[in-house]
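Format notes (please read before filing issues)

Several people have asked whether sequences and structure tokens are stored in separate files. They are not. Every record keeps both together, in the order shown below: the sequence lines, then the token lines. Line labels are part of the format and must not be stripped during preprocessing.
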Amino acid sequence: MAKVTFRLPSKKVNYGYVEITGEAQELGIGNPADAHAVAQAYVNYMVDFVRSEIGTVEAASKQAPAPKDPETPEEVETLLHDELGARKIATKKNTKPWEQKPQVTATPDWDI
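Then the structure lines:
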């Protein structure tokens, strides 16, 4: 028996696709040696997939509750640290970078 793989592009997920592999008869191809039959089965499968995908994604997005915005500074910090992976950077309180004294470094030999 001939195995056939369909690669179906997603219309809702950027660069997403689904690969379906099966026997020719499972995918609705009567004669896998007939290029027209394979192409027709692929187009039928792809159109059905795209219609179903769009309907499923739209239905899921209508059912999903909107995320709640953080209201307190603690909630903001939790969101940034736990969910987004941000790190807290230790800084001196009330010190602006332009008000800090510059660090004096030794002049390199090549700098005249």
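For reference, the curators noted about this record: Helices lie at 35-63, 73-83. Residues 3 and 22 are 5 Å apart (CA to CA).
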